[in-house]
TrEMBL record:
This is Protein kinase domain-containing protein. One of its GO terms (molecular function) is protein kinase activity. PANTHER family: N-TERMINAL KINASE-LIKE PROTEIN, SCY1-RELATED S/T PROTEIN KINASE-LIKE. Residues 691-703 have a biased composition (Basic and acidic residues).
């Protein structure tokens, strides 16, 4: 019979434990022996959320079952923000369980809390509010206030627990009177020590708790008490607290400190307490009060503990920001505080709000987001930025000047997390922004491009950098031109020798004649650095393979031997010139023999005639002169087709190809004399005076190489045997500039165009005027002309 009863009890206990929806973890070792309850960490079975579980073993503490049951009842019935939050509880045959929010005993954390100024005052304020509610509103006494019966949440709030002795002190059969042995002796007021319970019936309900509140203040500032007389030491008690502290230990219970009046003390007038109190009542405050509070909070945020910022201030601010009017001060504070959150906490608490804010049309909100980007960019993943945020950010490129400026600057922080596809899209916006009417936008765009170069692919660097920075050099706004030169220097390691020699140095050279001294000086320094780098790169260039050199030498030597009959002593670099010279000399000799009996006349292209050139006007001194002259004729003929500007370095010496076969027996001498006319020395200064007027034509009036009419476009006139025919000369007008697309023509060394006039522009980097609004699609299609397609 008895065995059946035990079996049923065990079966019922098993069923009760299975129905308990919480997992009971290990006990908190520091709390063991300090209470009739055992404190455990635990989790909820449904979602794994953390909780704290108080467990009372009936079998081991049968004498205190009434106390445990009283505590269980008070925990369920007393609901106040400053008391432990009751979540669940169950009474079984052998155990009583009380489930609360996750907490830690104050006794374990008091040393850490002391490190922050006024942190203790915030805890005392909360305990005083709890006692005021219990004593004044409910006429109950706690009866056991000390460091072991107060608990701290993860948000830094102090919560009053251990409600086992809560009762009416005027009740002669109260739990407090029957079980006061659970109170440590050092905390007992004189009435309990002396057993003056009848005196307590006439005392206010806060008489017992006020004495214990004074003991709590002592231990918070001076450390653990060893005996009740220790409370007379005021050395570590704050001075503004002395009066209230001494009043707690008054010999008359009715003269002791009322917790309600204690809340009005100047002791609680500090930034820590004011901040937490304001946040708890923020929904009741008007806009003016909120604005004043946010300004004060922003300047004192470093004085608050991290756990309070994380679990108390941020949740309150998020609620106020989402459900109240938009206040940009709140956003800045939230982003600063949230930088200390873990990735998991940030992804659940802050990121959803950030995505919502970026999609907002409120300009002030978006500007504030970009200004505080450095505080939260590290918590945003690359996928999140490229897929959900960037599409909203680029709208700022087409907005008012202030938002456009902030959007450009923010790209420095966004660039490391952008994909190549997104960077390509960004560079198209930059190309359009370099043509923005506001000079500050153009300047900051160039600076930003230089800063994000390291994140561009090699292909994008090759296509974008030189055209973009060259565009900046041509800007009349001095800071933009300087930014372009500085950008070239900043990215000097990304260019090869060919780019430096053929594109960058020529572009920088144009800045050497800029009217502004700062641009000239910076350009000169930049060119020197690029030349130094180019010199080092040239030294490391590899020569062609030896096999290729041998093959070229063999081919050239064989050609020379076959054409001239020489023994291969001549260098291969002038072999082709010697070959052509011998052929030309042979043609001239044959022409002399055939023209002895012909009439002396010279025919010029386009029916233009001049006085005949005397056969003896110039004389060849040696065969080397003939070779040299023939070399020049060949070179001129080979280049006349490709260059039509008539003003290359040797154009004044070039001789046009022969149009038709001459009939003058002086054609040979005419050819030679025309060739010798290209010599710059003074070998013929002693010629007859009558021949000098024929050659008084100025250098710039020399015949210009021209192409044939359109009917014979693409063909080159062949020289007739035995003479040269000149084309009609064209006079080059002074100050004529041949302009091409890149601003670097062959004659730029001789003709410098005057500076173009432009309207005076503002020098402010951050423009304040508005600009015309373009569609985003239009901006996206514009770009630097050699890469945007």
């Amino acid at each position: 019979m008895f065995n059946n009863i035990l079996a049923r009890m065990g079966q019922g206990l098993s069923v009760g434990q299975q129905s308990f929806p919480y997992n009971i973890g290990n006990p908190v070792s520091t709390y063991l022996g300090k209470s009739i309850w055992t404190l455990h960490s635990g989790t909820k079975k449904d979602d794994g959320s953390p909780v704290s579980i108080f467990s009372f073993d009936k079998t081991k503490n049968q004498s205190k079952i009434d106390v445990a049951k009283n505590g269980f009842k008070r925990a369920k019935t007393i609901r106040h923000p400053n008391f432990l939050t009751y979540l669940d509880g169950i009474e079984m045959d052998s155990n009583i369980y009380i489930v609360t929010e996750p907490i830690q005993p104050l006794d374990d954390l008091i040393d850490d809390i002391k490190k922050y100024d006024n942190a203790i005052s915030w805890g005392i304020y909360q305990i005083a509010k709890a006692l005021s509610f219990l004593n004044n509103n409910n006429n109950l006494a706690h009866g056991n206030i000390n460091l072991t019966t107060i608990f701290v949440t993860k948000a830094g709030d102090w919560k009053l627990g251990s409600l086992d002795l809560v009762s009416d002190p005027k009740d002669l059969y109260s739990v407090l009177k029957n079980h006061h042995d659970l109170i440590p002796v050092k905390y007992k007021p004189p009435e309990i020590l002396k057993g003056l319970w009848s005196h307590l019936q006439e005392s206010p309900s806060y008489g017992i708790d006020s004495w214990m509140l004074g003991c709590l203040l002592y231990e918070c500032y001076s450390g653990p008490m060893s005996k009740s007389e220790d409370v007379r030491d005021l050395d570590n008690i704050p001075k503004q607290l002395h009066q209230q502290y001494q009043k707690c230990f008054s010999s008359k219970t009715e003269s002791r400190l009322n917790p309600q009046k204690f809340l009005e003390s100047s002791y609680f007038q500090n930034i820590f307490v004011e901040t937490c109190v304001f946040l708890e009542n923020i929904t009741l405050k008007d806009n003016f009060e909120k604005e004043s509070f946010y300004k004060k909070l922003d300047s004192n945020i470093e004085k608050l503990p991290a756990n309070i910022c994380k679990f108390k201030i941020i949740p309150h601010l998020l609620t106020a920001f989402e459900f109240g009017p938009i206040n940009l001060k709140i956003l800045g504070i939230i982003l600063k505080l949230s930088s200390n959150l873990t990735p998991e906490e940030y992804s659940t608490k802050i990121i959803p709000s950030i995505l919502k804010w970026f999609a907002s049309d409120d300009r002030a909100l978006r500007i504030n987001l970009l200004e505080n980007l450095e505080h939260y960019i590290q918590h945003l993943s690359s996928d999140l930025i490229n897929n959900q945020i960037f599409q909203h950010v680029v709208n700022g490129f087409n907005d008012n000047p202030t938002l456009k400026e902030m959007t450009v600057k923010s790209m420095i922080l966004f660039a490391p997390k952008l994909t190549e596809k997104t960077l390509t899209q960004l560079l198209k916006y930059f190309a359009a922004l370099q043509k923005d009417p506001l000079p500050g936008i153009r300047t900051n765009t160039t600076i930003c491009l230089g800063r994000i170069t390291e994140y561009l692919s090699d292909d994008l660097k090759k296509k974008v950098l030189i055209p973009a920075f060259s565009t900046a050099l041509k800007d009349s706004f001095v800071p933009h031109a300087n930014a372009g030169i500085s950008a070239f220097l900043f990215t000097i390691n990304y260019y090869n020798a060919e780019q430096i020699a053929t594109r960058i140095i020529p572009e920088l050279s144009q800045c050497l004649i800029n009217p502004d001294r700062s641009i000239r000086n910076l350009a000169l320094q930049s060119i020197q650095k690029f030349l130094t780098k180019l010199e080092k790169m040239i030294e490391t260039m590899e020569s062609p393979p030896q096999s290729q050199l041998n093959s070229n030498n063999s081919s050239t030597e064989g050609s020379l031997n076959n054409s001239t009959g020489s023994d291969g002593v001549l260098s291969n670099s002038i072999g082709w010139a010697m070959n052509y010279t011998k052929k030309l000399v042979g043609n001239e000799q044959s022409s002399n023999n055939n023209s002895k009996n012909s009439s002396p006349s010279t025919t010029y292209n386009n029916s233009t005639t001049t006085s005949p050139i005397n056969n003896n006007t110039f004389k060849s001194t040696n065969s080397n002169t003939t070779s040299k002259s023939s070399f020049q004729v060949s070179s001129s003929s080979s280049t006349s087709k490709s260059n039509n500007n008539g003003w290359e370095e040797d154009d004044e010496f070039d001789v046009p190809p022969v149009k038709s076969k001459p009939t003058n027996n002086n054609s040979k001498n005419s050819s030679k004399n025309k060739v010798h006319n290209s010599d710059d020395d003074n070998d013929d200064d002693d010629d007859d005076e009558e021949e000098k007027p024929r050659y008084t034509t100025k250098k710039e009036d020399l015949p210009k190489m021209v192409t044939k009419p359109s009917t014979t476009t693409g063909t080159t006139s062949k020289p007739a045997k035995g003479g040269l025919v000149l084309k009609k000369p064209e006079t080059i007008k002074p100050n004529t500039l041949v302009v091409d697309d890149n601003g670097w023509d062959n004659n730029d060394d001789f003709e410098i165009p005057p500076p173009t006039s432009s309207k005076k522009q503002s020098t402010s980097i951050l423009p304040t005027s508005t600009t015309s609004k373009k569609s985003v699609n239009k901006i996206a299609t514009e770009g630097w002309e050699d890469w945007s397609d």
